[in-house]
Every structure is written in structure tokens, then in C-alpha cells.
Amino acid sequence: MSDVESEVDLTPEQAAEVQAALEEWRQLAAASDVMEDVLLEDSPAVTFLGRVANQLSAQQMEHLRRLVGEAVAARAGGLVADPTDRGPTFHGGIRGLFKDLDLTEEQVIAIRDALEQSRETVQDLCAQYRAGEITEDELREGRAQARADLAAAINAVLTEDQQAQLEQNKLDILVRRLNALLLRYDVRIGHRVDRLDILLDLSDAQAAAITDILMSEKTDLESLRDAVAAGNLSSAEAWDSFRALQIETNEAVRGELTEDQLTILDELRQMHEPCVMGVEL
Question: Which domain of life is it from (predicted)?
Fold first, then answer.
């Protein structure tokens, strides 16, 4: 905190606010989900910046964004699992994906190896993206290939019955995710637009246009959820539709922003920590 205070040239009052926001960031990061939100609502780093933006000058915010970007990149480097840890268990939320598959110890270890390889691939892609070595489209394509490679590696060690159960688990997880996104969606739209307003200084016209875009997204999300729940889509089709909707929403929002606002938004997007976690199926 002392480094931040000196580099950003904070007053004591500003330092206290930033310290409180940092504590919130740590708590949010510990519980951060792996699903990327194109408008950064669920990014702990961006939540932190949004909380302190009204307390700092434009120059201070510029310095703070740089420091936060460096902190996120450093955290990304620390997320690689210990390669010697190959016990027959899964960690965290990944367990739900393999619920009721009755995996053997050998299958668990093989799947963990595949998951770790995919995680390292995505971490490398995110590092390249943050360094400006690849574009966002190339990042997206690389992650899609990583998903395909991971799915193939996992299916190779499963029986047909296990593959069918895994497919159902993926669909169940997506339905739960969509229901969670739609919960109090109208209120959340207000929060999302307010967050962008604080960080990008939106005009009234921009705020209204972005609100309309997000309301349209709600309708599409509801339709997708209903199609998945009815069994009309495979998990791959459903997840591809979900990601396509995110991209469409993102591009529509970007179309409402100025070049200066886009520059800041792109800085913020590179701080989105789920990018570095990124094991996806």
C-alpha cells in the first residue's frame, strides 16, 4: 500500500479510501468466478478502480490503472499449479463438472493433467495479450482452440456413459449460470452502466444507448436459457451461443464509445482476472 500511496501521490484521505477498496478487492478476488463478463462487472480489479475513481484525479487514476495492471499480471504469474501435485482429486468449482461420473483414480489424474495443460495455455495467451503481442481476436481464437483440445483430451479417457453425464453436467452448469446472470438483471444493468460512467465519464446519450443494449441482451439470455433447459442445444452449441452473445454485446457497447474511452476500456479489460484462470470446457 505504501508503494501505491507514493506513486499515485495520494492524500491521507485518499489513501484510506484506497486501502478499504484494496481489502474489498482481495475478498472479491478470492471468490472470483471463471466466467468472463464483457462489461467487467465481475472483475475485482475493475470493481476496485470504480470504487476509488471519484476520489482521485485523472492523472492519479492513470497511475493507479498502470499499477493495478501490473498487479494483475503478477497475480497471473502466480496461478500456475504445482506440477508435483498430482493426487486423485479436483479443486474448487471444477468438481461439479465431473459430478456423478464415477471416475477411476487413473482417469482423475489424466483429466487433471489435461486441465493443467489447458490452464497453462490460456495463461500464456493472456500474457501475450497483455503484452500486446496478440490481438483480442487472436486471444479469443486461442482460447477456443484450447477448449477444443481440452474437451478432446478429456473425452479420450471417458467411457460413453461418462461422456453423456459430462454433457448433462455442462448443460446444468450453464442453466445455473444463466439464471444467476438474470437474477435482478434490471438492477444489475443500472450498476453496470454506473460503473462505466464512473470510469469512462459517459454522456447521457451514451448511458441511455448502453442501457438499451443491455436490456436487449437480457431478452437473448432468457431465450438461450429456455433453449438449453428444453434440451434444444448441445453444451458446445449453448456455450458458443453464450460467448457469441457476449461478443455481440461487447461490440455494440464499444460502438457507443469514443476513442479515448475505448483506450481506457481496453486497459480495464486486460485487468479482468478470470482471463488468467481460464480453464473452459
Answer: Bacteria
